[in-house]
Amino acid sequence: MAKELTYEELLMQNSLLKKQNKYLSEHTERVEKQNEKLSEENKLLNAEIKQLTIDYNWALEQLKLSKKKIYGASAEKIAVDYGQISFFNEAEAERTPMLPEPKVEDVIRKSHKKKKRGTKEIYKNLEVVEHTYELPQEELVCPKCDSEMTFMRWKTKSEINIVPAKVQLIVHKEAVYVCKECDKNGIEGSFKYTKSVPSLIEKSLVSPSLMAWIMNQKFCLALPLYRQEQELKRMGVNLSRQTMSNWVIAGSKLLKPLYDALHQNLLDRNILHADETVLEVLNLPDRDKPVDAYMWVYRTSRFEERPVVLYDYEEGRSGDYAKDFLKGFSGYLHCDGWGGYNKVEHIKRVGCLVHLRRYFLNALEVQEDKKDYSTNAGKGFLLIEKIFKAERINPDKPSEKNKYTEAEIAEIRKTVQPQLLKDFFDFCEEYQGRGMPKNLTGVAVNHALNQKDTFMTFLDDPKLELSNNAAERAVKPFVISRKNFLFCNTPNGANSSAVIFSIIETAKENGLKPFEYLEFLFENIRLGNDVTELVPWSEKVPENIKMKGE
């Protein structure tokens, strides 16, 4: 039988139990706090792991995209005219051993599908030189019966011949007349002179044709002045690149009034495109190092009957440059999503759906399966594709014109496109609502929603385009030339380039031969004619300057 505890012993035991309970309670509290701390640390670690995973996936996407841009073929095809092939392996790259020699009809005619034309029609754009080969009279004897043979027909074959450029030294001899009677009587100053054509540049050897040739070689064919210097030397002419550079700058100043006239014509339109590209200039005032300036391009719609393409050199990328250049313009401006264009007054921006498509295409390119369109990137991409397909437009062929009439496009944009745009932006908003992860698809969706209003502007007018490809194509010739001469030495050189590129590209867009048009302009300039009246669509432009069969 257990000994019964005394009251004092019970009190002591109770006190001990209280102490033990307090200790256990405090220990439990400490453990709970430690658990809470560990739980918070675990949450932070999980969040850090999640962020690191997101950052890793983002970096992996960027790496894949960079590799694709460097080593992979572009999914968005560029017109062959603007393709770049290595200077040294171009012949080998383009070589097709089994390809048969083209026939003269295939070389001269624009299309095989056109109605068959007669010989005169085929050759109408080329000078035709005929060489005839006849047998002497004594050989016109039949090998079988010795009878005299008579002419039946011509058997013909053709070849394309190139006549190389010929350099001439034109000497203008101005007759000087003197009065012998005055001379006898000691009267001075009794002279008369004949006048030849004025010089293009005072006390200079440069002629309109030489100026046009140098500009065409450099700005149309992307041949730097140092290579022209070498080529001229082989032709027996010693002209330094420095001399030619001076001529180019002087010539651009002569063309500036025409450039200004085209600028005003551009501002009078109601639909324009704009883009810009970087240009390194070595010797900027008050700058110790080369800096990235910009060449801006502005052009009319591709569907204008009288297109204008203008370049503008500026020492930066501020939207103020676009604002100043387009002062006086009011209407629609196709451009990319860069915010600088918001500074341009009196415009309504037209977003580029090809740019937007490119964002989703980039997201597709970094997937394990690039053709898996069940992903969010794939879904967004297909929804944009439907917008292009509705108007039978191939976004990979920027030079291709609309297959529908203006009235048909207007109907499509009234009945079909609004629903397709709604479907696309509903998808984007739903994706955003789920919380956009840090990946290329999220970037694409964010870009779409931020520029939503501009992407829907094309519904306003059937003359508006789904993309800014027209401006991007106008930038290409400059970009190609830039790769060859890399930079401009001075702002004067860059400004000159802007003027000359503008004249040449506008001429090309209007179906004129650049060299012939430049020569025509400089001939009129030296005669003192108003160059502002010689815009590419002027009735004063001779027919021989116009491209045939376009």
Any overview of this molecule?
With 550 residues, this protein is α/β, with parallel strands linked by helices. The protein is built from 18 helices and 8 strands. It has helices spanning 7-71, 90-94, 104-108, 119-122, 180-184, 208-220, 225-234, 241-267, 319-325, 353-365, 376-390, 406-415, 417-433, 440-450, 452-456, 469-485, 491-509, 514-526, and strands at residues 176-178, 191-193, 271-281, 291-300, 309-314, 331-334, 347-350, 487-488. Helices cover 47% and strands 8% of the residues. It has a domain at 261-488. Strands 3, 4, 5, 6, 7 and 8 form a 6-stranded mixed beta sheet that branches. The model is unreliable at 74-114 (pLDDT under 50).
Question: How would the blueprint of this fold be written?
Answer:
Blueprint: H1 7-71, H2 90-94, H3 104-108, H4 119-122, E1 176-178, H5 180-184, E2 191-193, H6 208-220, H7 225-234, H8 241-267, E3 271-281, E4 291-300, E5 309-314, H9 319-325, E6 331-334, E7 347-350, H10 353-365, H11 376-390, H12 406-415, H13 417-433, H14 440-450, H15 452-456, H16 469-485, E8 487-488, H17 491-509, H18 514-526
Parallel strand pairs: 3-6, 3-8, 6-7
Antiparallel strand pairs: 1-2, 3-4, 4-5
Helix pairs in contact: 6-17, 6-18, 7-8, 8-17, 10-11, 10-14, 11-13, 13-14, 17-18
List keywords for this structure.
550 residues; 6-stranded mixed beta sheet; alpha/beta; single chain
